[in-house]
Amino acid sequence: MINADPQELAKFSELAHRWWDPHSEFKPLHQINPLRLAWMDGLSPFKGLKVLDVGCGGGILTDSIARKGAQALGIDLSTKALRVAQLHAMEAGTEGVEYREVPVEELAAEMPGAFDTVTCMEMLEHVPDPSSVVRACSALVKPGGWVFFSTLNRNPKAFLFAIVGAEYLLKMLPKGTHEYARFIRPSELAQYCRDAGLELHSSKGLEYNPLTQAYWLSADTSVNYMIACRKPTL
């Protein structure tokens, strides 16, 4: 069985045509993309690397990685989102970027150890088995390579900020974008990574000020957070 939730895919497919509109429901992704990109690029400079972006959606991060000089492959299971990503790459003239509709587990069997760096942003909380995605990402990266994940913490503050605040009060995201039960504590994600043979390197939190509408990276991982892992060298 494919590790995907049909309702989640349908939800994002319905919005696919708005993916590259910086004032749409995807405005937060456009705003946080430069922060995440800079943090990852600082740890594993993308230029000249072969990079996989898992759960790429409309390609906001994948496109940016390619523009850093990487050979970037974005994969997703939303046909509409991938078409939007491909169309944007053509219109923007982005070089070194490719998109495929394939489950990450299937790609891991097809191309083990093929990538220098693997990114998986804002996807784990939308799939039935996040640990399976983590294992596949580990299988896809070369020894010594980097794997980056981002997701949402599971605690009362995250419920208040990410669901009540972002979806209902501030209306930054469509209602129902997230399901609290699928949020993942950093300790849980760390265990998934260790079980998959990855070594944890560092983590970063992402904070937001609704008054200034500004995001910034911090040490606070209580709501949105990212972790960086490395695959041990042989």
Protein described:
With 234 residues, the protein is α/β, with parallel strands linked by helices. It has a single domain, classed as Vaccinia Virus protein VP39 (Rossmann fold, 3-Layer(aba) Sandwich). Helix content is 38%, strand content 25%. The chain contains 8 helices and 8 strands, in the order ααβαβαβαβαβααβββ. It has helices at 6-14, 27-43, 60-67, 79-92, 104-110, 130-140, 156-169, 186-195, and strands spanning 50-54, 71-76, 97-101, 115-121, 141-152, 199-209, 214-218, 224-230. Strands 3-2-1-4-5-8-6-7 form an 8-stranded mixed β-sheet. A hairpin with a 4-residue loop joins strand 6 and strand 7 (214-218). Helix 2 packs parallel to helix 3 (60-67), helix 5 (104-110) packs parallel to helix 6 and helix 6 (130-140) packs across helix 8 (186-195). The longest helix is centred in the first third of the chain and has 17 residues, at 27-43. It is globular. The mean pLDDT is 95. GO terms for molecular function: 2-polyprenyl-6-hydroxyphenol methylase activity; 3-demethylubiquinol 3-O-methyltransferase activity; polyprenyldihydroxybenzoate methyltransferase activity. Belongs to the methyltransferase superfamily. UbiG/COQ3 family. S-adenosyl-L-methionine binds at residues 36, 55, 76, 121. It catalyses: a 3-(all-trans-polyprenyl)benzene-1,2-diol + S-adenosyl-L-methionine = a 2-methoxy-6-(all-trans-polyprenyl)phenol + S-adenosyl-L-homocysteine + H(+); a 3-demethylubiquinol + S-adenosyl-L-methionine = a ubiquinol + S-adenosyl-L-homocysteine + H(+). Keywords: Methyltransferase, S-adenosyl-L-methionine, Transferase, Ubiquinone, Ubiquinone biosynthesis.
